Amino acid sequence: MYIKQVIIQGFRSFKDQTEVEPFSPKHNVIVGRNGSGKSNFFFAIQFVLSDDFTHLKPDDRQQLLHEGTGPRTVTAYVEIIFDNSDHRIQIESEEVTLRRVIGMKKDNYYLDGKHVTKNDVMCLLEGAGFSRSNPYYIVKQGKNLERAMRDKNSTLTTLNKEKLQLHDENEELIARKAQLEFSLSDLQQIATDEKNNRDKYVRELERLESDIKSKESELNSILPQYQHHKGQEERLNARLKACEQHRSELFAKEGRVQEFSTTEERDRFINKEITSLQQSAANKEKQIQEIKQGVSQLKTKVEQQTRDIQEKTSSLEETKESLDRVNRDCSRLKVQREDISNQRQELWRKQNVVSTSLMNTREELVKHERHQRVLMGK
């Protein structure tokens, strides 16, 4: 993350809108004649990012507004545009715009054109490594002048120790950050695999539900046939029973000689009736056996369909349980990913503080060594 562009209007010596760009992601040097606005330019950046302009009195506000010939300036703003391609500022966009507008009766902040509170801005900057309690991201000229005048040998020893300590801490933070990035990469891969598994289980769930509906529909179409054949069997059994009853009655009539003129006539009649009843009984018995066979087949098919439905239902429940487990795993991985992301943000902030402290310590060390050489030269 770095500053891409600064836009100033109505602020101190900047009357008209002034756009300063482009900036390097590494080092930048502002040069110009005396009175050209170099100090006010850095003052403008400080005005937006630091905590030094929190409680402004009317006189303080007036001093921040441009004073010159022409119409009176009643409002001023400073806008800083950040390159956020590394997403240190926890916003999805690649570019973040932060503007502060000040007047005699107003002091507003805008983030990407939307009004926000100062506390929101400070919290967002802290998340990106701009610490209010340790504001080393802005170092003013002459700030460490008094410290540079202390005892040189003692200061050099202290600074060397601090430099080594900060260097070790910085290396540790870099290693920790790399470890977290590897962990985050692994979690993202696991989350992708879990999502693929979840999609697979969802498809399997849909297929099983479709199979169950199909089996239930097939079973519903078989049941009427089963009931029909079973009814036929019951009716044929009743008719067979009636035929046997009728045959018994014929045998009972065999002794009634008086109803026939001769014994031969009686025997012919009885034999004819018996033959007819036996043929009818044989036919009925055949039909009954066929129907029983059909009923048995339908019963077997119904039982098979019932078992299939039970198996599909059991498989469906197992798939639902697997899907629930995958969903729980996905939720847990999301929480872990958020935790690692937050840890990485915190490490960025700490690394920024340590790097800035290390840089300042090195600068102070160079100054003290230079000053010591000057003193030794005298």
TrEMBL record:
Alphabetized InterPro entries for the sequence: P-loop_NTPase, RecF/RecN/SMC_N, SMC3_ABC_euk
Keywords: Cell cycle, Coiled coil
Coiled-coil stretches: 156-218, 274-343
Transmembrane segments: none
Domain of life: Eukaryota
Residue stretches making up the RecF/RecN/SMC N-terminal domain: 2-133
Molecular-function GO terms, alphabetical: ATP binding; ATP hydrolysis activity
Short name of any one Pfam family annotated for the protein: SMC_N
Protein name, entry field: Structural maintenance of chromosomes protein 3
Upper classification of the organism: Eukaryota, Metazoa, Porifera, Demospongiae, Heteroscleromorpha
